[in-house]
Design a protein that fits this description.
Layout (H helix, E strand, L loop, with lengths): L2 E6 L10 H9 L13 H11 L1 E9 L6 H8 L4 E6 L6 H14 L2 E6 L5 E2 L2 E2 L7 E3 L2 H4 L8
Parallel strand pairs: 1-2, 2-3, 3-4
Antiparallel strand pairs: 4-7, 5-6
Length: 148
């Protein structure tokens, strides 16, 4: 059976996780010490093979200089595509141009787009908790992650 893992975060171990993430790892997933570690490419491919996962969509963020997800997608385009987020929607045209440029340069199959957080009197806007998903097809034509 062919499987696609739709969201893989390969840089979880690159920074210290917040307390809530550690609690989720331990309380819900019963994850061990390596649960929030960033896998190296051969290790990730071996784990995918062992689990029967043929392809994966790696999470990337606009503006990162050294991005493990982009590197893995470039090294193994047969196994990985990218999901991208991190655009400043308070500047919609520059965000759209950045998204178009990113999609031209990398194998993006979806973009995460949500309202930017507005802080007013120390409180977040209720809308800042919502996330929208759009297809990159609206930006650069239809692109497939190999799911068919």
């Amino acid at each position: 059976m062919k499987a696609i893992d739709c969201l893989v975060n390969v840089d979880m171990g690159d920074s210290a996780p917040p307390d809530w993430m550690i609690r989720v790892k331990e309380d819900y997933f019963k994850g061990g010490a390596d649960f929030l570690r960033s896998p190296e490419l051969p290790e990730l491919v071996d784990a995918m093979d062992a689990a029967g996962v043929e392809r994966a969509i790696l999470i990337s963020k606009a503006g990162r200089k050294d991005d493990r997800a982009r590197r893995y997608a470039e090294e193994r385009p047969d196994r990985f595509a990218l999901g991208i987020g991190g655009f400043n929607l308070l500047r919609p045209m520059s965000a759209l141009r950045a998204l178009e440029s990113f999609v031209r340069d990398y194998p993006v199959v979806y973009a995460t787009v949500g309202p930017s957080t507005r802080v007013s009197r120390g409180r977040r806007s209720p809308r800042s908790r919502r996330t929208r998903y759009i297809s990159t097809g609206s930006v650069s034509g239809s692109r497939s992650c190999g799911c068919a």
